[in-house]
Write a structure and sequence with these properties.
The chain is mainly β and 126 residues long. The chain has no helices and eight strands. The chain has one domain: SH3 type barrels (Roll). The protein has a five-stranded antiparallel β-sheet, with no helix packed on it. A three-stranded antiparallel β-sheet has the order 1-2-3, with no helix packed on it.
């Protein structure tokens, strides 16, 4: 890196984008704009991300089963963590890094909205 500069940006959140269908889920979009009105970038939770270089493989030879990736996009899951989300059902959209060695998923709920859930807080629906 040869240059770093702190700049001001305007962050906006679009309350809804999408038709609420399986192919076009309803979601919240975050956009970042320059001070002169140019769109700099957009965060869309269902956009296809570039592969992450540090994402662990589905299963590592010799790894503990507790640390193997066990979920796949499109699977239905139920939230089993504490709080108001407990019992919510959703469909996995994409896996994202949370912090440290933890991973989370963007999950489409039955009402079409998208939330982020830590892998340790949900299990597959059977």
């Amino acid at each position: 890196m040869s240059d770093v500069e702190v700049i001001q940006v305007v962050r906006t959140r679009l309350e809804r984008r999408g038709k609420g269908t399986v192919d076009d889920v309803m979601r919240v979009i975050t956009q970042y704009w320059s001070m002169d009105g140019a769109l700099l970038w957009e965060e869309d939770p269902v956009a296809t991300p570039a592969p992450l270089k540090n994402e662990p493989p589905l299963a590592t030879p010799g790894a503990s089963p507790l640390f193997e990736r066990k979920f796949r996009r499109g699977e239905r899951v139920v939230y089993v963590g504490a709080g108001a989300r407990c019992g919510k059902v959703g469909t996995l959209i994409r896996r994202i890094p949370a912090w440290g060695d933890l991973w989370a998923w963007h999950v489409t709920l039955e009402n079409g909205m998208v939330e982020g859930w830590l892998e340790s807080n949900f299990m597959l629906c059977h």
